[in-house]
Design brief:
Number of domains: 3
Strand order of the largest sheet: 1-3-2
Strand content: 5-15%
Radius of gyration: 26 Å
Number of strands: 12
Bound molecules: protoporphyrin IX containing FE
Helix content: 40-55%
Oligomer: single chain
Structural class: mainly alpha
Length: 592
């Protein structure tokens, strides 16, 4: 991007060079127009004349990937950019009509899903949207944004290498980095197949209100209300104006600094060798624990000690949750197929839940602030996070450790008022039933979706098969309890015993800010602002499976859980060096 506040001559020269790059290909006529531009530059022409020349040049090039129908300074920040005519609906999933691309490939066109990665424009192949292992929402939430930090955090080196094949252009980043667009999906816009068999825009939800321009908060959350069926469409696609981030108090410069800091921190974690899974010393003791819990539960069952058996089954499930979590993050063998197969065995067959559902929803929560607004029904509907049910009811309050540094005022406002209520524990103790409902709903919904990832829909069928097996074995266990009161007791005790993980996860997120600061906020700042570690006695740390170090987990989701402790020390030290907040102070057990 060119900074319009700089010396006009420099800007014009730079812009001219950029235009020459665009028109490098073949056109002879453009030479004449370029001549005009040259003249405008030499004469230090007013910006209007320059813009006119530029516009003509771009329009003249029928094959220009820019398709600019007008050329304007669209940013109040003074950035000079090429944009589509704002009066015309932006018929693109790609809001990058303004991108000056050096692409030599012909497929940079409208209706693409594009994001920025290290200054490169990456086009997500359409087939990836339906088969992306991290779910389609994670990608759609980053359209039009610089997703470098997120993409580095979420992908293996192998995948990052492969992504290079999807690079279709380059953008020049200013001092403050890329000025992001609001992804269309954040305004409720999605693409779907039209009646004529062509893809078209569809407005699934309408913005209710935006908290822009608040003097007290930098939040720029857009609340969405699901569109009523049959509601009249006034637009055929998102307008450019809707894709501009609402002004807020975040400084792009500070966010850029955070982003640079994250890159440095990530390098430290990689250099410390923490991405290597410790199979023996890490998972070894866990497997012993899983086996013991399962065995004790089985022995108790055969002895007729049903409550004890249910209790140990619940504890077994609680522990397995952490293993399923690692697998869902491709964090065990780091091979997607292998990790997915094992996770289906663990989550679906033993636990009765769909790992596919978990992955799709879980990954979004790593990418955005969680919405707690009951008004935001669209978001809840889409994300169907396990806590969407529980949070509007109540959220417990928790104390933070006295050592917690006070948050920097500009980037860490407190979350919504939190009320303490014992009811929240009761609701959370039954959360597992909500997870079943969400899981099966997801599998039903995706039954007919094309999923081609790694050679087919085998994972969907494997999940369905394993869930069938779960119902068979757990149904037999319940049946063996004899009477209805026994069955009910077994069901409740086993499910309640597996619930501390839900309290822990809700705490780690909802006792922090849930405000959405929009696409300007960096990945690093958002994770530090929205998560907190649970502190507990070292003797019971195993109950939390290492995920009590939630801040570090959010910063490096693919890091093997057993290395989180070491990584968290690095992160804390780094945060201290930089004067950033690392929230490590939630007490859990003292409250229950
Ligand atoms: C061409 C673009 C992309 C490709 C080819 C791609 C591919 C993949 C692959 C293969 C994985 C499995 C993990 C691995 O093997 O690395 C994955 C996971 C994931 N991707 Fe992407 N991805 C793309 C873009 C994105 C974008 C833009 C985002 C948004 C930030 C994203 C978010 C995620 C997430 C959240 C996961 C799950 C990571 C985890 O479980 O810890 N991906 N992606």
């Amino acid at each position: 991007m060119l900074d319009y506040n700089q010396d006009l001559h420099t800007q014009l020269t730079q812009a001219h060079e950029a235009v020459c790059r665009v028109s490098l290909q073949k056109d002879i006529e453009v030479k004449e127009l370029q001549g005009n531009l040259d003249k405008a530059i030499r004469l230090n022409a007013p910006a209007d004349i320059f813009r006119h020349s530029l516009k003509t040049l771009l329009e003249h090039r029928a094959d220009s990937p820019i398709h600019a129908s007008s050329c304007q300074t669209s940013r109040p920040s003074g950035h000079f950019s090429f944009t589509c005519d704002a009066a015309r609906p932006l018929d693109v999933r790609d809001p990058f009509a303004r991108v000056r691309t050096r692409s030599t490939r012909a497929d940079v066109d409208i209706n693409n899903t594009l994001f920025i990665l290290n200054g490169n424009v990456v086009r997500v192949p359409p087939s990836w949207l339906t088969s992306h292992p991290g779910g389609n929402l994670a990608i759609l939430r980053h359209v039009g944004r610089d997703a470098t930090d997120e993409v580095d955090a979420f992908h293996s080196d192998e995948t990052l290498q492969k992504m290079k094949g999807s690079v279709v252009g380059r953008v020049e980043l200013g001092e403050d980095g890329w000025v992001p667009f609001v992804p269309p999906i954040a305004n409720g816009w999605v693409r779907r197949m039209g009646r004529d068999g062509k893809m078209e825009w569809y407005n699934e939800a309408r913005p209710l209100k935006s908290t822009e321009d608040s003097d007290t908060s930098p939040a720029s959350q857009i609340l969405l209300k699901k569109a009523q069926a049959g509601a009249e469409e006034t637009q055929t696609g998102p307008m450019l104006a809707q894709l501009q981030p609402t002004p807020n108090k975040l400084s792009p410069k500070t966010e850029k600094m955070h982003s640079d800091a994250y890159k440095e921190l990530h390098k430290r974690v990689i250099d410390a060798g923490l991405y290597k899974t410790r199979f023996i010393t890490g998972y070894g003791p866990e497997f012993v624990r899983y086996t013991l819990l399962a065995l004790v539960s089985a022995v108790c069952y055969y002895k007729g000690w049903l409550v004890a058996s249910a209790l140990f089954l619940g504890l077994f499930w609680q522990q397995l949750t952490f293993f399923a979590h690692d697998l869902g993050h491709v964090g065990v063998t780091h091979d997607w197929t292998l990790d997915r197969l094992i996770s289906i065995f663990v989550a679906d067959l033993i636990g009765g839940m769909s790992i596919g559902w978990w992955v799709n929803n879980h990954n979004v929560h790593h990418c955005k602030s969680l919405s707690v607004s009951p008004l935001n029904d669209y978001d809840n509907e889409r994300m169907r996070l396990k806590w969407s049910l529980t949070i509007p009811l109540t959220t417990p309050t928790f104390s933070t450790s006295p050592s917690l540094p006070s948050p920097p005022s500009s980037s860490t406002p407190s979350g919504p008022p939190i009320t303490s209520h014992k009811l929240s524990y009761i609701v959370l103790s039954l959360t597992r039933f909500n997870l079943y409902a969400n899981s099966y709903g997801y599998l039903a919904k995706t039954a007919f979706e094309p999923k081609r990832f790694r050679g087919g829909r085998w994972w969907w069928w494997t999940e369905v098969l394993c869930l069938g097996l779960f119902f068979a074995w757990f149904g037999a266990v319940l049946k063996g309890c004899g009477s209805w009161p026994n069955i009910l007791t077994y069901l409740l005790v086993s499910h309640v015993a597996a619930s501390p993980v839900h309290v822990q996860i809700v705490l780690s997120h909802f006792s922090r800010s849930t405000a959405d600061f929009g696409p300007v906020e960096s990945f690093f700042a958002r994770q530090l602002r929205t998560t907190v570690d649970v502190i507990c006695s070292p003797h019971i740390e195993f109950i939390h499976g290492g995920l009590h170090l939630q801040v570090t987990h959010h910063l490096f989701p693919r890091l093997p859980r057993h290395n989180l402790h070491e990584a968290s020390l690095i992160v804390k030290e780094f945060a201290k060096e930089r004067g950033l907040e690392y929230a490590d102070g939630i007490m859990m057990w003292s409250r229950i």
